[in-house]
Amino acid sequence: MGMGLARAGFLVVGVLLLALGGCGGGDRVDAPRVLITVVVDGLSTRQMLRHQECFDQGGFRRLLDEGAWFERARFSHSTTFTAPGHATIATGATPAEHGLVGNGWFDRETGRRVYCMSDPEVRSVGAARSRPSSSPRNLEVPTLADVLWMRSEGRSRSLAVSVKDRAATVGSGRHGQAYWWDNGSGRFVTSSFYFDAMPPWWEDYYETSPQNVHIGREKIDRPCDLPWHSLYRVALDSLRAHGVRARIHDRLPENATKTYFRALKSSPWVDELTFDFLREALAHSEVGRDPDRIDHLFVSFSAHDYVSHNVGPDSPTATSVLRHLDAILAGLFDELDAVVGRGEWTLAFTADHGYPETPESEELRGIDAGRLDPRRLGADLDRYLDTTFAEHDWIEHWSVPTFYLDIPRDFDEREVWRVAQGWLEVQRGIQAVFRRDQLVAETPADSLLTAARHSYSPRRSGDLLVVQRPNWYLLGDPLADVCTHGSPHPYDREVPLIFLGRGVRTGHYRDPAEIRDLAPTLLALAGETPASTMSGKVLGAALRGSRFRSADGASASR
Q: 180: part of which helix (H) or strand (E)?
């Protein structure tokens, strides 16, 4: 499928959505030529600050010293996973609004699980083998890049690069270019939604197989000893005693096999490959070339997330990854100065979610913590409903964090929901359970229910949304990862939010901010009003001058 046909349906939807309000351009005097969004997968504010002594000048320090940093920024939704987080960053909307309620969900019509980026109408391009691939088809609102494209009448350009397709596809929008990692070859590839074939520069770039230059390298080559590393090593022994499958490999494999490419993803070198490819793609793109339009660049660095899952965010390996990333950020800023022009760009820096410490680490401190097994919960709940109502396969599916129930027509579904909710809420490790009718209601709610509502889609989510207690994990396989995320608790929701570059007022701000404010604020920095689909607000404190206005015409300052 050519990219024109693949995108045709999105054009009509996008125009209709933008026509609902907030379509007019603002004052573009002194607007940047390029807006850049930089995401570090899984970086909490806490972790960034804990590593400050390991950073050099030019990267993280430049962000903190020269940028507008909102110290209390957080996501407003509870399902803190990669797809919901990146989509919220890109659209300025909550998962309930943009539709990506998780990395996947259960489709009741087909009886199958749906991957968030799956699109049966497109094929992989550039991958080791052709297969169904990815597009932003499941995204239900326009992205920042889409807004720029619409308002420029198709002249604005967008480029996105990430190891993860669920980051790159939402970052590029429906009219840009997106590249992500192919596990079979270690190359950055795309789908027929964007290209029918890879461009000649891509073939030239991979002729020397740059993805193979890290064979046999050490993962920790930039150590920085920190106080918690010793506690981490003690917790690691506890992890293994609990049966957690820690995937610790200090050195990459010696051969360019799939094993090597999998291991490469959880090393500092995959971020360097991401940056190298981004530079090559940027050099051959039109992004930043035309001073009469505003373009968008999106990059998401994934190594930190893979390392944190495999060995934990407080591991020496994670520290090494962040030190490499610090140097990469400094290189990115220099590259933008060279390619776009110093003072011609504005950047937003954030993360798609944070990370807790491992339950085993918390247990060593005497804190209540643990790992929930939803498979066991589902089986036990099914038996309880059998004894309460009748024998039946009540649990249709589990997709974190929701149970989908199969309720026969002759039963009162709300009564079944209430009974199931009551049983789940008294299980160890569970803090709250919300029913479908509570999640779709418009009644006043506490902060936890509000966060759950921001994550809930009646079409895509299940009937019962489960919230674990602090320091408890809730995933499909509780022993698969050393560390994980996905909760509504502060360690998962509180992430950096920093603006840097043209139009930005340097400072540290204590104003409450949400990550869905990023896209509207970048648009304001470009002299544009937010789209009506963006529920985030313009963070006026970050903007120089009084000419910036929010979507409703009021002062943008919080």
A: strand 177-181
